[in-house]
Design a protein that fits this description.
single chain, 383 residues, alpha+beta, Nucleotidyltransferase, domain 5, 2 domains, eight-stranded mixed sheet, four-stranded mixed sheet, 7 helices, 17 strands, 36% helix
Amino acid sequence: MDETKEETLTLAYRVKLDVTRIKSDMLGMLCDFFQREHHAQLDFLDSIVAQEGRLVLKGKSQAGEGEFKQRVRYRAANDYKRARKAAKALKKQLKLPYLHAELCDAAEVQEPRKAISFDLWVHIEGLSRDCQLYLPARKHRALNRALDYPSASLCKSAQVMRRKGKWYAIVYVRCALPEPCEVKEWYGNDVGVRASVTRSDGYQGPDLHPILKAQKKRTAERQRQGMPHDFGRQTPQRQALAREARLLVSVALATGRGIALEDPKRLPRYKQWAARYFAKRVALLASLVGVQVTLIAPPYTSITCSKCGSVETFRYRSCFRCHRCGYTANADFNASCNIRARACHYGGSHKSPKSLLPGGGEVIGDSVLCTYLEGGWREGDGS
């Protein structure tokens, strides 16, 4: 009997490196050399395609040139294939994906042996075995949370990069995806601004207006002082939505229910950014613990009465009233009830949430690749 491959999810986390000035200078030189070799390899691959019409690497081995150059070629080949596939899909001219950041994709993660004051050691072997760097790093809460998942393991490969004068390492955690449990009851969820998240059981998340107002005031003050914003990729409203996503998944796991969400790709633009971010967070966190998630078509969920099903209704801000049966309720709560009802009607088979993962949930080998940097998920790279 053929054994099916276990599907895994690879998460990427960024940890800060504790480096001295001498190691920082050596890292800078290695990153510059990695960038130059990466550019040369891209030009070499492009010349092969121009001559033979397709990418043929057979007979062009670089064995014996060292692990560093082999990692450069591997990274350049993957970047070139990805850029060529994207140009073909968009019907545009191929633009070579040159590296513009100080990055070295030739590092590996090691567990501490003698120096136990640090949790991780990132090892980089340069052009020869005499040039070796050992960079200490400490784990953080998000990385430890990922390692606590069942069958989670720390990958050996890593990347080293410099951002705003500080050195970081991107480490990867591979988690096995459990089979989602069969459910009969669902939690309908509606994403808004007055209430960040409204569930069909009556729960309402915090109001995003004070958060947006404080963020706008803080950004304006920093711009007045000539300083850039300091939120990074994880803005305060994204942090609030991430907390609500973790709470929703934990409640669904404890009660044995599924999660029903509006398909963010079919929402209006003013509402799409928050709903898409929330749905991506929920889909990723739920896939790690085996909670079933389904996406519902959003048309008429806001104006349909959850009691009688009539669309002859009146809605103004958070107030909802049905002209047929006289039902009055919070507008977001009424929408979440409609989402739950549709999920129960379709039985959780309306649409898979994997379309929200980076790359459309594409399985690369036996692993779905996602990226988590500074608490935010970022698409195109590859809790």
